[in-house]
Design a protein that fits this description.
Layout: H1 2-16, E1 18-23, H2 28-33, E2 36-38, H3 40-49, E3 54-58, H4 61-70, E4 75-77, H5 93-102, E5 107-111, H6 116-120, E6 124-126, H7 131-137, E7 142-146, H8 149-156, E8 162-165, H9 178-187, E9 192-195, H10 201-204, E10 209-210, H11 213-222, E11 227-231, H12 236-243, E12 248-251, H13 266-275, H14 284-300
Parallel strand pairs: 1-2, 1-3, 3-4, 5-6, 5-7, 7-8, 9-10, 9-11, 11-12
Helix pairs in contact: 1-13, 3-4, 11-12
The protein binds 1,3-dihydroxyacetonephosphate and iron/sulfur cluster.
Length: 302
Amino acid sequence: MKANLINKINKLKEEQNAIILAHNYQINEVQAIADYTGDSLGLSRTAAQTDAEVIVFAGVDFMAESAAILAPHKKVLLPERNAACPMAEMITVKELRKKKKQYPKAAVVCYVNSSAAVKAESDICCTSSNAVEIVEAIDKEQILFVPDQNLGQYVADRTTKEVILWDGYCRTHHRVRPKDITEVKNAHPQVKIIVHPECKPEVVKLADYVGSTAQILEFAKESNDEKIIVGTEMGILYNLKQNNPDKDFYLLTKALICQNMKMTSLKDIVCALEEMKYQITVDDEIRLKAQSALDKMLELSN
Ligand code: 13P
Ligand code: SF4
């Protein structure tokens, strides 16, 4: 059954000149068949550079939208229409415009986990792997950081600039408690704990390393530790294990699961390629402004 689906995907991919991009939180079998797996920055870069005509995005809506913004002449497909990021829904254009009036001198830095319309209202985008770098590179001293309050605080703690926070958050990472870290540290004081900056600041402070999913994978590869505890969505365990078969990885808490990232199946990918659905498009007016915010980010990040 699974082998059948994989064969179909490979055949359809060739027929349609398609590439499959998967986020590091996707289910194991989807990551296994993807042409590229990565964090939000890596996925945006790959979408912008690919020669394929069709991009199948195994992730959540804002990621496919970013691909459609960066590659306007390609067909971008989101196999599961309902895969959305709740954090991206915690800010609207109307609310952002109101806040901008309150802080007219601030540069708006928008986490990629946001809608195209919110990106279009922002000066520049960032991801969890380059947020500090982007804020530092901007020639303004006051930053309105939206929508993730935790990533915003992570940046605020690493810059001398004034960072005004929004009140959005990732429901998955926000569930991690300082207690989850202290309990594990007490039981296993020698084991390193690495977390995502979408975790609360009090959790981040207790961790041994903080990074985007790609940075966490890199850290694990470089580390000499045989056991590592990970505080990010459980999908990361697939690539951690694939890349480091001799090391052991443990999830900090079993609450670290994002239902939206688990929606896309191999069957959905077959349907997406057979029926060219669900195509993600962005109106030109919004797209051009959002593209400028994304392009500026890509130019500034190494
Ligand atoms: P990164 O893979 O960019 O670290 O993003 C995490 C995330 O929550 C995406 O939804
Ligand atoms: Fe959104 Fe968090 Fe899920 Fe990422 S893990 S898609 S930020 S809810």
